[in-house]
Design a protein that fits this description.
CATH architecture: 3-Layer(aba) Sandwich
Order of helices and strands: EHEEHEHHEHEHEHHE
Helix content: 40-55%
Number of helices: 8
Radius of gyration: 18 Å
CATH class: Alpha Beta
Strand content: 15-25%
Largest sheet: 8 strands, mixed
CATH superfamily: Response regulator
Distance between the termini: 31 Å
Length: about 170
């Protein structure tokens, strides 16, 4: 029987003190409604709340989590990877450091691209352009990093197509 998403529970792990949280939750709620899955927002304000957050995710039978881009979460990438694996909850992250730390998969802006764009801005400013006159630049290079070791630890079988599409597979 094919799996339906009407009972799928996905939890974004978010820092409520981050200014982007409200808009991120609104966007995720729209996606959840369109996709037919349930959203369970998990607020985490500090490192000590992470353990309780993952225990709650397990208790609520959460099937996947999203780690938002936030300094608090990025600084605790290894702890999040350990908690996710020990509670058997797969997660997707916005930066490769999570997958490198043991998270399942990341999809986000390629780190070197951000550095290159910052260099372009600095160069233009050093040549005399006013920062206020510079156009907003958006990243154009993204990468998917899949941690196959974590997938195995979670008991997941990764489709061949997903492996082939990943920019990097961590064995």
């Amino acid at each position: 029987m094919a799996r339906t998403f009407d009972s799928l529970i996905v939890a974004p792990v978010l820092n409520p003190d981050n200014l982007n949280t409200v808009s991120n939750v609104q966007e995720l709620q729209t996606l959840a409604r369109a996709g037919g899955w349930r959203l369970q927002v998990v607020p985490v304000r500090n490192e000590t709340e992470l353990g309780a957050a993952f225990a709650a995710l397990k208790d609520h039978k959460t099937e996947a989590f999203l780690a938002a881009g936030d300094a608090l979460l990025s600084n605790n990438a290894l702890l999040i990877a350990v908690l996710a694996t020990s509670h058997a909850i797969p997660g997707i992250h916005q930066s490769r450091q999570f997958a490198e730390a043991g998270g399942l998969i990341s999809y986000g802006t390629k780190g070197t691209e951000l550095g290159r764009q910052a260099g372009v801005y600095v160069g233009r400013i050093l040549k005399g352009e006013r920062p206020a006159d510079l156009p907003v630049m958006q990243a154009t290079k993204f990468e998917t990093v899949l941690n196959l070791k974590t997938a195995r630890a979670l008991g997941l079988t990764v489709p061949t197509e997903t492996l082939l599409r990943a920019d990097e597979v961590i064995e």
